[in-house]
Design goal:
mainly alpha; elongated
Length: 286
């Protein structure tokens, strides 16, 4: 469980106000949640998370920005705790609530809350059991995140990097399990978000593109697309002076070329073996 900390702007509250006391008490309770979770006391941690929500219900204005900011942090905790309890359905339900609260906060201050929206997307890639649900979620959030990844504050950069790494890891796991087409969709999303963050093609995007092409080569019908992709990324590898990546690209292009050149001969060879086996079987049957 990764604790998400959202600094609250508490200077706008009166020194001895009840609302200020509630926010501070809820923050302390949340720290206890994290400490208990690290000790492996999940039931106690969950009880404290519920207590945090109970404390927050006493707040006077549910539309207050700082109240909602703290609510976002608490929802991150609850989503992960439900997931650790293997209560996947409730975890996904709380995730939907998290996105709804975040989307409202983005309208108030996208600069401040953008990174947490990206982190919520990263969380989704880890907890959603259905890969289709994950892709659908990314598609739904695309309009919301369109301008977020272009922001260059440290929090946004770190959050986007986490999302990209999570998508890439998911793609690698899917590829290793043989689900190549799903893996390619996750690689596409990872590269898209990575390019949005940097505004250019870096070594990381080149490397992920090579990994994507390697998977395409496992699907015969996608060989032409892999060749086009590798040819398009080769100039970037040369400009970046990444010799090892340039060599990887050239090696894969050589593989594609070799397969194309030898495909007719290979088919004829396999057909010949098949025909011989059929003839032998007929003789044996007689």
């Amino acid at each position: 469980m990764t604790q998400i900390n959202i600094p609250l702007a508490l200077t706008g509250f009166e020194k001895n106000s009840e609302d200020l006391h509630i926010l501070r008490e809820a923050e302390k309770c949340r720290q206890t949640v994290f400490a208990l979770e690290r000790e492996g006391k999940l039931i106690d941690a969950f009880e404290r998370a519920v207590e945090t929500m109970r404390i927050m219900r006493k707040f006077s204005d549910f539309d207050n920005t700082e109240f909602r900011a703290l609510l976002v942090a608490v929802l991150f905790d609850i989503v992960e705790l439900h997931y650790e309890f293997k209560d996947y359905r409730q975890s996904e339900k709380e995730l939907d609530t998290l996105f709804k609260v975040l989307e409202a906060l983005l309208k108030v201050d996208a600069e401040r809350f953008g990174q947490y929206h990206i982190l919520a997307m990263e969380l989704s890639t880890r907890i959603l059991r259905s890969r289709k649900k994950t892709i659908d979620m990314l598609a739904r959030q695309q309009a919301v995140t369109a301008g977020l990844c272009e922001k260059v504050n440290d929090g946004m950069v770190a959050a986007t990097d986490r999302l990209v790494d999570s998508l890439r890891k998911t793609a690698q796991l899917l590829a290793s399990s043989g689900d190549y087409r799903a893996a390619l969709r996750f690689y596409s999303e990872a590269i898209r978000f990575s390019k949005k963050r940097t505004g250019k093609v870096t070594r990381k995007e080149v490397k992920m593109t090579i990994e994507m092409a390697e998977i395409m080569l496992r699907i015969k019908s996608m060989h032409p697309r892999a060749e086009r992709l590798l040819s398009a990324v080769l100039p970037h590898a040369i400009n970046l002076e990444t010799v090892e990546l340039e060599e990887d690209i050239l090696a894969l292009l050589e593989v594609v070329s070799h397969v194309k050149e030898n495909e007719p001969r290979w088919r004829q060879f396999l057909r010949g073996i098949t025909d011989k086996n059929k003839t032998k079987k007929k003789k044996d049957d007689k």
